[in-house]
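F.,

This is the one I mentioned.
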């Protein structure tokens, strides 16, 4: 809820809405109570056994401890995405040494990886909703770091596939627990910004991966990059034990959940998730946007080197700058916009991504068309920024509309849909399309394959607009059912 100023809020539920009355301190006799009405999640999401409202819960400002937790989780996410992005960054030297095709590269970075990353996240989410989420995160970090090191020792395609699938297995336990820890550390009116900062992980991780991985590969060998980053991840897995797992629901208006309280079962949470149009549309729209970002991201370095003439050293500097600047601006700005507008209208969770994706289309097409890499990178900066505007609003929406003891599981289901569509199918589609047209267009097969991603912008935009319509309708129904202000 809002920031805690000089007021006390009284919360009651009426007809599917949460009615908040703020009695201002001071000369209350000369002031009318301020009343605001906000829609509650459907009854299926409410916990009848939840603790009574806690005074000031969800209103306090985050302190130094909360920001330290966020920065620690961000560091783990940077390593998570750095490990994940190395294959795409080092695609050309790996292809040259192991003799793998674009289709094989797309499968190993897409469908094979996603098969473990997406589906293992479900049982991991169920475990993390019941046990210590920090311990789950630490073990997951150790697993994916060992697997990343193993990639550096692969001598053929099957060995590399096995190592990358193990990376996916470990990384499945990284993001869902972190989303829930953040939601229980930051109050609702701060979660958009907090999640935006946390979601800097992909941009910073990819940029470090480009700069560090490409530099190491150019100076030594691509294998050293995998081994070095895997070792850093093992150290981080030990340090993450210093984080204390916050109480579930600690920053929610209703206060923390009762310790030891039994949460909903797996099937109850899955049924809730897949029966909610808002959750399904948020996942599907994000999946369509993710199809573009992963399809492009897994082949951008290879495209720039093969068809635009960049070297590994140039990639390590200039492409890394585009990635870190574009994605960092995206995560911070989208989080700020979500915090600013979503408390006025929940439609902002969908309108912000829809507008951003619409603006990105001409610049994406220009990037593919540009004859030289300097112009291509200048144009790429815009879609690199706007393509990721969907992530923070979608995550914040999912975390807001479910119960505290369903947050990890709901986050895992959200990631399952989004990443199976985007991560699993996006790179696989681009690699297969490139190999399909290579015989007729050997010099520009990747360019044609990346052009084929363009229709998915339209799909994602339409799904986000559909989500906006449902959010507007649910808000209107909540207002109609609210009692008039006295």
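My design for it:
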């Amino acid at each position: 809820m809002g920031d805690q100023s000089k007021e006390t809020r009284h919360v009651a539920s009426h007809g599917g809405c949460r009615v908040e009355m703020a009695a201002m301190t001071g000369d209350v006799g000369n002031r009318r109570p301020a009343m605001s009405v906000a829609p509650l999640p459907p009854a299926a999401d409410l916990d009848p056994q939840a603790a009574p409202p806690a005074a000031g819960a969800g209103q306090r400002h985050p302190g130094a401890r909360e920001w330290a937790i966020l920065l620690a989780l961000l560091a783990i996410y940077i390593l998570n995405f750095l490990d994940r992005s190395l294959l795409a960054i080092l695609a050309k030297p790996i292809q040259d040494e192991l003799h793998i095709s674009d289709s094989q590269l797309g499968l190993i970075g897409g469908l094979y990886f996603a098969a473990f990353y997406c589906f293992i996240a479900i049982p991991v989410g169920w475990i993390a909703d019941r046990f210590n989420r920090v311990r789950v995160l630490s073990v997951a970090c150790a697993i994916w770091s060992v697997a990343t090191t193993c990639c550096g020792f692969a001598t053929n395609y099957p060995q590399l596939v096995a190592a990358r699938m193990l990376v996916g297995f470990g990384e499945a336990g990284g993001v869902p627990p972190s989303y829930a820890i953040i939601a229980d550390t930051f109050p609702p009116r701060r979660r958009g910004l907090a999640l935006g900062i946390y979601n800097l992980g992909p941009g910073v991780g990819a940029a470090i991966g480009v700069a560090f991985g490409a530099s190491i590969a150019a100076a030594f060998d691509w294998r050293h990059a995998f081994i070095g980053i895997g070792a850093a991840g093992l150290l981080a897995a030990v340090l993450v034990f210093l984080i204390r797992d916050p109480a579930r629901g600690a920053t929610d208006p209703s206060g923390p959940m009762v310790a030891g309280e039994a949460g909903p079962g797996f099937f109850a949470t899955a049924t809730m998730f897949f029966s909610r149009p808002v959750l399904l549309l948020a996942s599907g729209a994000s999946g369509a946007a993710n199809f573009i970002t992963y399809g492009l991201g897994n082949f951008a370095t290879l495209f720039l080197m093969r068809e635009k003439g960049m070297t590994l050293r140039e990639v390590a500097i200039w492409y890394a700058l585009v990635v870190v600047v574009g994605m960092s601006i995206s995560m911070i700005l989208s989080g700020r916009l979500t915090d600013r507008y979503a408390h006025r209208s929940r439609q902002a969770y969908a309108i912000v991504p829809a507008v951003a994706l619409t603006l990105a289309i001409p610049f994406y097409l220009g990037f593919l068309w540009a004859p030289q890499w300097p112009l291509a990178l200048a144009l790429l900066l815009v879609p690199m920024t706007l393509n990721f505007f969907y992530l923070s609003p979608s995550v914040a929406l999912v975390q807001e509309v479910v119960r505290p003891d369903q947050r990890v599981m709901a986050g895992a289901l959200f990631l399952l849909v989004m990443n199976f569509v985007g991560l699993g199918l996006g790179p696989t589609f681009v690699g297969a399309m490139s190999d399909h047209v290579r015989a007729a267009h050997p010099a520009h097969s990747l360019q044609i394959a990346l052009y084929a991603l363009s229709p998915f912008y339209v799909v994602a935009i339409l799904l986000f607009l559909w989500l906006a319509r449902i959010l507007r309708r649910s808000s209107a129904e909540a207002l109609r059912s609210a009692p008039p202000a006295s």
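The domain at 54-481 is CATH 1.20.1250.20 (Growth Hormone; Chain: A;).

Talk soon.
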